[in-house]
Amino acid sequence: MKKLSVVIPALNEEEAIERVVKGIPVKELKKIGFNTEILVIDNGSTDRTAQIASANGARVIVQPVRGYGNAYKSGFSNAEGDIIATGDADMTYPFERLPEFVKLLEEEKIDFLSTDRLKEVTSKSMHWTHNFGNHFLTRICKILWPGFPFNDSQSGMWVFRRQIWQRLKVTSPGMPLSQELKVEAYTRKLKCKEIPIEYRARVGKVKLRGVRDAIGNTLQLFKKRISR
Fold first, then answer.
1. Which residues contact 8 (CB under 8 A, 6 or more apart)?
2. pLDDT tens digit string along 58-111?
3. Which residues, 6 or more positions from 140, have their beta carbon under 8 angstroms from its beta carbon?
4. pTM
5. Cα–Cα distance, 26 to 37 (Å, whole number)
6. What's the CA angle centered on 168, arms 165 and 172, to 5 degrees?
7. Does residue 199 sit in helix, strand or coil?
8. Which end of the chain is more exposed for a tag (fewer CB within 10 A), N or C?
């Protein structure tokens, strides 16, 4: 039987982490031939995130160096699955659809599957400024890399074959990792696909830094384009 690793970065998410971990459809995934391991990457939490995740069956990996990218890279290096799936620890992503995503990846021999939050997003789940920023950053990606196949460059839910990770030059320690991963998957000529998902209102404190993150992500895109 194959194995799926679900990698979830978490920073002070005690309000939602139990529901997130319990919401991963382990039984349904087993029915389609996948055992599942759940890795929660504790990125310096000062609350009970790690304890709650562990008590609900997740393997907790401690990455004390803060940063979205640092957390994911730690998770990927510890993942044992043939396939890796990701999502946030705040109830925003539909983990219940993982069996569908994994089947699609296998049946269509996809290397990297990403998700589009923006097609059906509502004001309850994403503030208009955040929505605008996502569209803006995606537009820059499409200008800098003609043919860029993703309509949501900032989405944090992906499903991909673990073997491709070693082929990707992903260096960002922070939020730009999400867009950098997609740029790498596209420019390395991997078989990519994007599907729309429902994006939900988060549970817990918002950690995005608005303008600061937008500027940082924009600069990272131009720096990456120049360096290639």
1. 20, 21, 38, 39, 40, 41, 58, 75, 86, 87, 88, 89
2. 999 999 999 999 999 999 999 999 999 999 999 999 999 999 999 999 999 999
3. 218, 221
4. 0.94
5. 9
6. 100
7. coil
8. N
